[in-house]
Model the fold of this input.
Amino acid sequence: CSDSTDFYFLHSTCKVVVLLCLVHISVTLVFYVRSLDLRFAFAQNQQSGGSSSSNVSQRNQVQDSRITVKSQPDVKKLEKLGPLRVEFNLPVTFEDTKKANPKVGPGGHYQPPDCVPEQKVAVIIPFRNRDEHLKYWLYYLHPILQRQQLYYTIFVINQEGTGKFNRAKLLNVGYVEALKDDNYDCFVFSDVDLIPIDDRNTYKCFSNPRHLSAAMDKFGFKLPYNQFFGGVSSMSKQQILKINGFPNNYWGWGGEDDDIFNRLVFSGMYVSRPSAEIGKCRMIRHTRDKLNEDNPQRFDRIAHTRDTMRKDGLNSLTYKVVKKETFDLFTEITVDIGKP
Ligand code: BGC
Done:
């Protein structure tokens, strides 16, 4: 009797062990097949960029064919896209980018033909003397923004003259000028030298201000510090009004993005970000512009945001539009923003 009980116990234990092994193998198999699928999608993306890297027009055609497929909304396909090949050693021209993006209208405007997007996005680029960077930015971003099925227009806000650069004031100008053209409800502010390398990083607005360039190559694909808000960000019209726009008195390099971060926090908002994987972006390497030296006053100014933000911003903005030009791929507004 005791023998048969032992045997029965052993038999049941073996059955449970075998069953557990089978479950384990099946789960492993499912995960393995899924990872193969993802790797295949990534390899395809790499090939489409790499195989035609000697010919810019051909490269664009490949990207364009991807747009056609995706103009029928397919969430699964959107998720599977992802890492993109972005490099800055190819010759890129405005003409090639124009040819590769036939659906982009005058002024750099696009709207999806088969759906009504929930937001109207104005993309604002503070700018001076960076045509080489702008070529790459337009070359990579127009296809991405179309794949993201956004209603958007590109506004390049060009600072006239040779005085010190003032990034935040140009952002204020971009906001005001864009609203003269259309009732945009979302604003994406992007440096001209930053390109996202994952098109799941949607350039739209969220319930809190969004820091889109969350993982820059320059900082080892990590945040340099938690409060970092530089590079590319998006904010709705309401969010911008809540912080009285941006500071107008940061002349030269640095600090204005920290001031904007303070404004958000002091207005009861927080910064949302994509994951470090999706928020990856590449910066076009360049030497610092001579007219954009470090702003030594920035530390003092950042320490006083709470006192200054209600007096300095959209409600104190003054500038003069010198020229407004509608190009094929973007709208350029040249402005005189004065001096420090
Ligand atoms: C500056 C910021 C800049 C950051 C990263 C900070 O010291 O104040 O404006 O974005 O460094 O370079």
